Every structure is written in structure tokens, then in C-alpha cells.
Amino acid sequence: MDIQERLTAFAMLGATWVMWLLVLLSIVGLAIILERAYYLFVSRDDIAKLKSDLLAKLRSNDVDAARTRMRQSRSVEAQVALAGLDAAEDGAETAEERMDGQTSISRLNMERNLAFLGTVGNNAPFVGLAGTVIGIIRAFHELNESQGQVSAGLMAEVGEALVATLIGLLVALPAVAFFNLFQRIIKARLTRADAMGREVLAFLKSERRKNGVAEAAAE
């Protein structure tokens, strides 16, 4: 039996397994969507107020109070700023490195399982297309069996082929939509985190300059 015959024999098993595979992918994708939506929802905060509180405490030179305020928030923005504040005594350069590291960790936490969601969104139509090809092969076989006559079996095979494509699209579209939505939210949060981190760095550099001036004056 050559490769063509083997593939034909495999196709004759039907496209039902393709549809069940797509259903399984859709269930896993939905679970990821719900889990990521919950994670991003509970880690949100009023960033404008958070930043205002941070600046107020830094202007009053109360680093400990700023740390306490950041610990009260579950947001990524607060975690990045806190990483810098925790390294305040080590200097602005160290604080910047700590915040860069926290930013990378926060990105990984927010993007967890999104690669699977993106893969499903990009490839589900092709899985559905595989089911369509199998259905068409079976339809031609049914047409040959009926000696060129349109039969109920033929129409059933054609219908199965079209349904496989439809299911593939229905699985892919929500996956792509939510993948893009989550990526946009993550990008916005990381941008705001970077802005808050810069406020911390500006404070630390300002304090270093003040200390340098004070030491120069004392000499």
C-alpha cells in the first residue's frame, strides 16, 4: 500500500475526530480566556490615584510610606515601583535594574498561557480545513459509490466538510480577539509601570544630587 492509499484510508475514517479536536481546543481556550480575564481584573487599580499617592509621599521624602502604599496594591504598576523603592538605599542604578527585572517577571505572569491562545487562533482554521479536505475525499468516494448520482450520503459528507471549516473559524475568532485584547492590556499596564518607575528614579536621582550638594557644601 503506497502513501496515497494510506492517506485515503485514513481520510475514510471521517472528520469527526477533527471536530472533537476543535471542540477540545475551544474548551481549553475558553478556560485560558476566563483565567486571564480574572487575573487581569483582580490585579487592576486606580493608577491615577496610585501615582498621585506615590508622588505625594516621595515629595514629602517618606520612602517608607511610599513602600507601604505600593504594597497595598496588587497592580503590576505598584509592583514595579515597589521594586525600585526597595532598592532605594542602593542607588538609582540598582533600583533601575530591580525595576527592569520586576517588569520582566510581571510580563511573564500576565502573558502566561497566551501563547497557546494565539496558536489556537492562528491554526484552528487550518485544523478545520483538514476536516474539510477529509470530508471532500469522503464525498468523492460516496459519489463514486453512487455512480455519479446525488445521494443523501453524498450531501451528508459535503455538509460535514463545511461544518468542519465553520467550527475552525468559530474557534479561531474568539481566540484571536481575546489574544489581541489581552496583549493590548498588558502593553498598557507595562507602559504605565514604566512611567511610575521613572518617577521613582527621578526621586532617587534628585536625592543623590541633593546629597552631593550637601556634602560639597560641608567640605
What does this protein look like?
By secondary structure, the protein is mainly α. It contains 8 helices and no strands. The C terminus is likely disordered. It is rod-shaped and about 90 Å long. The protein has one domain.
Short description:
The chain is mostly helical. The chain contains eight helices and no strands. It comes from Sandaracinus amylolyticus.
Helix/strand layout:
Layout: H1 3-11, H2 16-42, H3 47-59, H4 63-71, H5 76-86, H6 92-110, H7 114-145, H8 152-218
Helix pairs in contact: 2-7, 2-8, 3-4, 3-8, 4-5, 5-6, 5-8, 6-8, 7-8
Q: Helix and strand string, N-terminal first?
A: HHHHHHHH
Number of strands: 0
Number of domains: 1
* Biggest beta-sheet profile: none
Low-confidence regions: 213-217
Strand-pairing-aware structural class: mainly alpha
* N-end to C-end Cα span: 94 Å
Q: If you average the pLDDT, what whole number results?
A: 82
Q: How much strand?
A: under 5%
Overall geometric form? rod-shaped
Q: Oligomer, anyone?
A: single chain
Rg, rounded, reads 29 Å
The number of helical elements comes to: 8
Can you tag this structure with a few keywords?
disordered C terminus, 85% helix, 219 residues, 0% strand, single chain, mainly alpha
